[in-house]
Amino acid sequence: MTDTVRTWWKEAVFYQIYPRSFLDTNGDGIGDLKGITRRLDYLEWLGVNAVWISPVYRSPMEDNGYDISDYRQIDPVFGTNDDMWELLKEAKRRNIRVIMDLVVNHCSDEHPWFEKAVAEPDSEEAGYFIFRKGKDGKEPNNWRSNFGGSVWEALPDGRYYMHTFSAKQPDLNWENPKLRKQIYDMMKWWLDKGISGFRVDAITFIKKDPEFHSVETEDGSRYPIENFENYPGIGKFLEEMKQEVLEPYQCMTVAEAPGVPESQLGDYEGENGYFSMIFDFTWDQFPEGADKASAETFTAWREAMIKGQLLAQKTGWCPIFLENHDQPRCPDKFFRAEEIDGKNITMLAALYFLMFGTPFIYQGQEIGMRNYPMKSMSDVYDRSAHIRFQEAAAAGTTEEEFIACLNEKGRDHARTPFQWSAGANAGFTDGTSWIPVHPDFRACNVEDESGDADSVLQFYRRLIRLRRQEPYRDIFVYGTIEFPELPGKIIGYKRKKDGREITVLCNFSGEAAEPGASAPGPGTEILLSNYENRGIYDGRLRAWEAVVCLSRQIRDQK
Ligand code: GLC
Ligand code: CA
């Protein structure tokens, strides 16, 4: 069943901002809130009407803000609370909604709660965290952290505390109702300030096996996710959060919720689910080490994507996306370096953007930003990669091997400075950037691409306009989706509503191809293509071509 309840977040086009790398306005080399406010005109020009801002709360920046030491203060590196109110006001003036990151599986070890919990084991705050005694001078169990190593960190007094991510990110104890109330109050405080919702971080880790069983694994190295990822009983907390905060505030949420099986999708993102939608990470990239050119890789990926879309359509709603701040750049995910050009980047854009769900664009994706070529660990800024490298090196992995892996999957690719112009530091800062600018910024930047009708940026603008414009908006937002059988490396879908139909066809290859019988007939009107002079569809797709066609039915109705 397609969800037809109308809400703003189904009709929105979201843009994710990683503030640290967006625009620096005071020359310290780090992006800031004033930088976002200064670029709201750009976002309006692009056509997006909602932004997700990655964490800007006070933080020691172990994990670039995903380690929070004060939930109600903006970190000085990003500006002040007043800068935030100014940003909200200016965004509202442009009809751009703002959602913030909600990081409540853990906080920072420099949060006053944790400092008190360490200093005073009997304090109320000690109950906000997960402390256990060691066993025979060792960690309480063999659970492993998402960033490598044990989830347990020893304190001088013999207690251990649990951290699903780095040791500077102690997990919060959701079993404690006082802690939960603190979180709900904080959420309401932000909603009262005028934000429209939250992107909910790592939420499926909040419930742990209450017995803290060790997990038997063959090689002892598996992450025991079955004991603290979407663990049974988590629904009680999520339902409570919904009743206490999300529902009364009509708060939009998009959750990072790894480990949710198909059978529970409805609980998470159905009409009455805990969240408005959750990210589906099953088809956002090819599997590690896959041959990007092979037909098998493509076919397996196409099937996963179709499955994800049909499930979302059946259960409720979903975000559609190709990138985020934890992931490589999308051209590099899907194509071999030597074949990447503007055509396959725009094909990819058309392919995901008109599917079922709410589209998200990650900063820089709209200009075709690329992976940063890293040569050694000194090019790596992501702390989690360094933690993982220590562990891998101890097990015999060389730096060269590790870098090869980071060049494919590392998180820094998404974090190089946004490329505004061909000027110094790509126009990102007047100072020295905290992370180097990608060497391709002279060819790939907003200033040049905005003046080039054929650029990736202008294609994104056209796509956004098409998705948001009448009379097609209703079909793209509320229409059903179907995936016809298509030959070879062609992928496509039909969006249908009230007897009207739009077909999107993409050629995922550098060779011309013919979609055959299940595609619209030659002569169909093309609404959008990534090639020039494409008014009418002739039954063929050129290399890496994407076309959006008005189906025969709608032509007949005119
Ligand atoms: C999420 C964030 C990631 C962060 C982690 C811990 O996965 O997307 O950037 O490191 O949670 O907060
Ligand atoms: Ca700055």
Task: List its salient traits.
5-stranded antiparallel sheet, single chain, 29% helix, binds calcium ion, globular, binds alpha-D-glucopyranose, alpha/beta, 17 helices, 558 residues
Major beta sheet summary: 8 strands, parallel
Give the amount of beta strand, in percent: 5-15%
Given helix and strand content, the structural type is alpha/beta
| Count of DSSP strands | 18
Strand order across the largest sheet: 11-10-9-5-2-1-13-12
Radius of gyration: 24 Å
- Give the % helix: 25-40%
Taking the alpha carbons of the first and last residues, their distance comes to 28 Å
In this entry the ligands are:
alpha-D-glucopyranose, calcium ion
Unreliable runs: 554-558
Averaged pLDDT:
95
Alpha plus pi helix count: 17
**What coarse outline follows from CA principal-axis ratios?**
globular
Give a short synopsis of this structure.
With 558 residues, the chain is of the alpha/beta class. It is 29% helix and 14% strand.
Descriptive account of the structure:
- With 558 residues, this protein is α/β, with parallel strands linked by helices.
- It is built from 17 helices and 18 strands.
- It has an eight-stranded parallel β-sheet with strand order 11-10-9-5-2-1-13-12. The protein has a five-stranded antiparallel β-sheet with strand order 14-15-16-18-17. The protein has a three-stranded antiparallel β-sheet with strand order 6-8-7, with no helix packed on it.
- The longest helix has 21 residues, at 295-315.
- Residues 554-558 have low confidence and may be disordered.
- The structure holds alpha-D-glucopyranose and calcium ion.
- Residues 24-26, 28, 30, 32 line the site of calcium ion.
